[in-house]
Specification:
Blueprint lengths: L12 E6 L4 E7 L3 H18 L4 H17 L1 H12 L3 H18 L2 H4 L4 E6 L2 E9 L2 E5 L7 H12 L3 E5 L6 H12 L7 E3 L4 H9 L3 E7 L2 H13 L3 E5 L4 E5 L5 H13 L9 E7 L3 H12 L4 E2 L13 H17 L2 E4 L6 E2 L10 E4 L6 H4 L6 E7 L2 H10 L2 E2 L1 E5 L3 H10 L4 E4 L15 E2 L2 E2 L6 H7 L1 E9 L17
Parallel strand pairs: 5-6, 5-8, 6-7, 8-9, 10-11, 10-18, 11-16, 12-14, 15-16, 18-19
Antiparallel strand pairs: 1-2, 3-4, 4-22, 9-21, 13-15, 17-20
Helix pairs in contact: 1-8, 2-4, 2-7, 3-4, 3-7, 4-6, 10-11
This protein binds nicotinamide-adenine-dinucleotide.
The site of nicotinamide-adenine-dinucleotide has 27 residues, from helix 8.
EC number: 1.2.1.27
Enzyme class: oxidoreductase
Keywords: NAD, Oxidoreductase
């Protein structure tokens, strides 16, 4: 459907809020299974001709899209802030990281270039080619409405597939803008289609026989479900799930650096990041000093409307704000020390916004719900341990394995941690170790179902399938019949 979201016939709708005012800013029509079927059919038709477009043509569209997106990045960031609530500088960062994947996809001619072996047998050559899959589905979460679609869509398209994108129903505006820009960049109609909706649309994509692969990002229960249902239907599925990221601080660390990092990674985007730090593991004897430094920095955080130069915006919906606040209550109830309680924040914003200030808990223990559950809000827990080994056990016992970080000035300790920790993305004195576009993004354990991470070479492989050709162009001489198994000669 080019840049326009799929029109559809469904009458089910959802509200899109401006989280900083609490008002309904838009409504979105949820696709029915029939709408999804119609979109997939259009994509199937488009995929047949798009796979035959030359690599030069496909990369030219990507380059043109890159120029449009780069010129209008502020517009995209503003849409993200208006519907998600994150502050403008943070939205601009998300747009930048998405743009980097577009730039990576511009190199598709070299990314799909494969090997050629001359004379694997006398007069016989062998070569590998990578071909597109056909129609692929991308299903994205609310927290990165621009970046997460951009982890997948540019590479899928550059590789010659057609895409049906189902963004989060909470903030679908960024996906619509991206699709419009792809149309402007010269992408043929039907190669990128946006359908809105919820479980009904997702299920229809998972069951549709013409959808060959699914890239999903969201919470762990839904990721597990998408992986199981999609693979049962014979599809290739990568399903990235939730997280509970630990930051280990060793006694020799630079505590000012560690405190800055804990605050930035704990409260940036109001904690609504899958790579947010939600647990600081302080290896004694530094916990008292570290907690004091974190609390001091938190007093300088300005919570408010992301368009007013504040540091931290609102949560995405009122229901989510209430859920996060209930975890703060549960932490107090369970006996953790609320060093800073964010439930009654001073805000620079409209009173109806979905506000919650930053909360810091100390003396958190692994049996507490604030430790166990992914809260996905501005709540940071400090767990005190006596040794590196105890800290490592804590991280490795977590069912999640998305991101982690260690803060230390001991290179040997950092090297040991990176070797021993069971987590997909590791930072050394870097709190949010999000890989660049040319590496791959993805966690371990309950943070990713499937074996392929997003973007980088793994992304290119996910959206293509390999074929190996063995060819012989006969010399004028002919070897005659031979019914034996082919071997080299
Ligand atoms: P979510 O799981 O509620 O929704 C994700 C997508 O699935 C949305 O498009 C939604 O419409 C759809 N969906 C929701 N419920 C469904 C159901 N029952 N059946 C089928 N589809 C369903 O996630 P969210 O709240 O939008 O996003 C936040 C979550 O995403 C957090 O858990 C966060 O950690 C995770 N996340 C993970 C990564 C990562 O890379 N691992 C990145 C970003 C976000």
């Amino acid at each position: 459907m080019g840049g326009k979201p799929w029109p559809g016939t469904s009458t089910r709708t959802g509200d899109v809020f401006d989280p900083a005012t609490g008002t309904v800013a838009d409504t979105v029509v949820f696709a029915s299974a029939d709408d999804v079927d119609a979109a997939v059919r259009v994509a199937s038709d488009a995929a047949r001709s798009w796979r035959d477009a030359s690599l030069a043509k496909r990369s030219a569209v990507l380059f043109a899209f890159r120029e449009i997106m780069n010129a209008r990045r502020d517009e995209l960031a503003a849409v993200v802030t208006a519907q998600h609530g994150k502050v403008l500088s943070d939205a601009a960062g998300e747009v930048q990281r998405g743009l980097e994947v577009v730039e990576y996809a511009c190199g598709i001619p070299t990314l799909v270039r494969a090997g050629f072996s001359e004379n694997v047998s006398t007069g016989v050559d062998s070569y590998a080619i990578r071909q597109p899959l056909g129609v692929v589905a991308v299903i994205s979460p609310f927290n990165f409405p621009a970046m997460v679609p951009l982890w997948f869509v540019p590479i899928a398209i550059a590789a010659g597939n057609a895409v049906v994108l189902k963004p989060s129903e909470k903030d679908p505006g960024a996906a619509v803008l991206l699709a419009e820009w792809f149309a402007e960049a010269g992408l043929p109609e039907g190669v990128l289609n946006v359908v809105h909706g919820d479980k009904e649309a997702v299920d229809a994509l998972l069951d549709h026989p013409a959808v060959k692969a699914v890239s999903f990002v969201g919470s762990t229960p839904v990721a597990r479900y998408v992986y199981q249902r999609g693979t049962a239907a014979g599809k290739r599925v990568q399903a990235l799930g939730g997280a509970k990221n630990h930051m280990v601080v060793l006694p020799d660390a630079d505590l000012d650096l560690a405190a800055d990092a804990a605050v930035n990674a704990g409260f940036g985007s109001a904690g609504e990041r899958c790579m947010a730090i939600s647990v600081v593991v302080a290896v004694e004897p530094i916990a008292d000093e570290l907690v004091a430094k974190i609390a001091f920095r938190m007093s300088g955080i300005r919570t408010g409307d992301g368009r007013r130069g504040c540091d931290m915006g609102p949560l995405v919906t009122g229901a989510h704000r209430d859920r996060v606040a209930s975890y703060v209550a549960a932490g107090v109830e369970a006996g953790a020390t609320a060093v800073v309680d964010g439930r009654d924040p001073a805000v620079d914003g409209e009173p109806g916004g979905f506000w919650l200030g930053p909360t810091l808990f100390d003396h958190v223990t692994p049996d507490m719900s604030i430790y166990r559950d992914e809260i996905f809000g501005p709540v940071l827990s400090v767990v005190r341990t006596g040794s590196y080994d105890e800290a490592l056990t804590l991280v490795n016992d977590s069912p999640y394995g998305n991101g982690t970080a260690i803060f230390t000035n001991d290179g040997g300790a950092a090297r040991r941690f990176q070797h021993e920790v069971e987590v997909g993305m590791v930072g050394v004195n870097v709190p949010i170790p999000v890989p660049m576009a040319y590496y791959s993004f993805g966690g371990w354990k309950a943070s990713l179902f499937g074996d392929t991470h997003a973007h980088g070479l793994e992304g290119v492989h996910f959206f293509t399938r390999g074929k190996v050709v063995t060819s012989r162009w006969l010399d004028p001489s002919h070897g005659g019949l031979n019914l034996g198994f082919p071997t080299q000669s």
